[in-house]
Specification:
CATH architecture of the largest domain: 3-Layer(aba) Sandwich
Shape: globular
CATH class of the largest domain: Alpha Beta
Strand content: 15-25%
Number of strands: 21
Distance between the termini: 104 Å
Number of helices: 10
Structural class: alpha/beta
Largest sheet: 9 strands, mixed
CATH topology of the largest domain: Rossmann fold
Length: 458
């Protein structure tokens, strides 16, 4: 009788965005509903029925005897980056920096590598897989980032990258980007699910083995998530998102995941012709200070991570002959604005149904937290009534559907930041807590009380 031959394993298909596996190729992922993200993946290895015990690499010790010096954060030389990282980079940590094309990821990390070579006493290695060494050198000349201890390699092969690490013995490794590096031991094309996972796992093992901090650059998809499988975010220790509008010089570095510090910190940078500079006090970028306020403007205080930032909201209410008046926003949530207009109509007796309403923020910032509701409502009411708010006043509070002003977090921190910048009046929700010296805080329990403060004559 002919012998039965084992059937080859059937191929599986995996989504590049969420990692969902299906038995056959489909155009749309059943997990995340994304189109064109299903690729063929390597067949899974059969699970072992029994695993034999092996010798541990290091013996287990009581937790009190574990050395802490090897896990101390080392400063990168850039204060805003250290703020987001929780004090600096930890030896052996793997940091993933994601952002849209052209936002300045490569420029920022080239400056990080330069500062490391300048002040740490150990060399830094910058490996690029997207540009040539000459292109990176031109950028380094423009940003004044040339240093003898900053080494540069243009490689797209993982084995070559590891060879550079052996030759240079750097104190910091930057890989730009992880989607362009290919592992010879993995199947698939560079940037695919299998390749990205294999390259990241190898770099993570390298970082843990040598205590070498590694920074990886990752691309983002159209939806703003990190390109490649979501397991990439679970492999690394820190995930940072570099955000910014190409029409604005402001750049925000947000912490999404951090095993060594807070995951809600924000760092501020400014894109310049000679590189990216950190902005220690960014509140002035979001304000348009004038001696006399114009109707339709209101100032609030947002909290990004643990940092309070002042922001200005501008609104314009104008009559129209159109059957469907326009509602246009920039930097605000359009659904939130529609809710504020409905509350003003019902609870404040301010009709805007036959008028166009435009609302925007100053400086390209985005206000998403409910604490800015009161400022948005007052800006719209100020434009509608043609009554300006005092130039030394801020407004903080969440507006409910019943017209009540709800409490928000960190009111004391917001008021302290406003007082530092010269604001001495504030409209706040009930029970605001301690008020800074020299500031007059007026409690407004509902929207009608806030509108009365707007109509009050000085």
């Amino acid at each position: 009788m002919p012998s039965k031959t084992a059937r080859p394993p059937r191929p599986t298909y995996r989504c590049a965005d969420c990692g969902h596996e299906v038995a056959k190729w489909v155009g749309r992922c059943p997990g995340c509903q994304a189109w064109g993200t299903i690729d063929e993946a390597a067949p899974a290895r059969p699970a072992l029925a029994k695993v034999s015990a092996g010798a541990p690499s290091t013996p287990a010790r009581p937790i009190a005897e574990v050395d802490l010096d090897s896990a101390r954060a080392v400063s990168t030389g850039i204060g805003e980056l250290d703020r987001v990282l929780g004090g600096g980079v930890v030896p052996g940590a793997v940091v993933l920096l994601a952002g849209e094309p052209g936002v300045g990821k490569s420029t920022l990390l080239l400056e990080v590598a330069h500062r490391w070579a300048l002040g740490s006493g150990t060399p830094s290695l910058y490996v690029t897989g997207e540009e040539s060494a000459g292109q990176v050198r031109l950028r380094a000349e423009r940003t004044d980032s040339v240093h003898p201890q900053l080494f540069l390699g243009a490689e797209s092969d993982l084995s070559a990258v590891l060879g550079h690490v052996d030759a240079v013995s750097p104190g910091l490794l930057v890989v730009d980007s992880v989607q362009t590096v290919q592992s010879p031991d993995a199947e698939g094309t560079p940037g695919g699910v299998t390749q990205v996972r294999s390259v990241t796992a190898a770099l993570v093992a390298l970082a843990k083995e040598r205590g070498l901090p590694v920074v990886l650059v990752g691309h983002v998809t159209k939806e703003g998530s990190v390109a490649g499988p979501r397991v990439l975010e679970h492999l690394v220790d820190v995930v940072l998102h570099f955000e910014g509008d190409r029409h604005s010089a402001l750049r925000l570095l947000r912490g999404v995941k951090n095993r060594f510090g807070p995951a809600d910190e924000v760092g501020c940078f400014e894109q310049r012709d000679d590189g990216i500079a950190e902005v220690v006090d960014p509140s002035g970028l979001f304000l348009n200070r004038q001696e006399s306020m114009v109707p339709g403007t209101a100032v609030t205080v947002m909290v990004e991570g643990k940092r309070p930032l002042l922001a200005e909201v501008q609104a314009l209410v104008t009559p129209t002959q159109m059957t469907m008046p326009r509602r246009s926003v920039s930097g605000l949530d359009s659904a939130r604005l529609s809710m504020m207009l409905a509350v003003l109509d019902k609870r404040g007796n301010l009709r805007t149904g036959d008028q166009e309403v435009y609302a925007a923020t100053v400086g390209g910032t985005k206000l998403t937290e409910p604490a800015s509701d009161l400022a948005v409502a007052l800006a719209v009411a100020s434009s509608k009534l043609d009554l300006p708010l005092p130039s030394n006043m801020i407004a903080v509070g969440e507006v409910g559907l019943a017209g009540e002003i709800r409490r928000v977090n960190s009111v004391g921190r917001r008021l302290a930041e406003a007082a530092r910048l010269g604001f001495d009046r504030a409209l706040v929700p009930p029970d605001p807590g301690p008020v800074p010296q020299g500031m007059k805080a007026t409690v407004v329990p509902d929207l009608k009380s806030a509108l009365r403060e707007l109509r009050r004559k000085e």
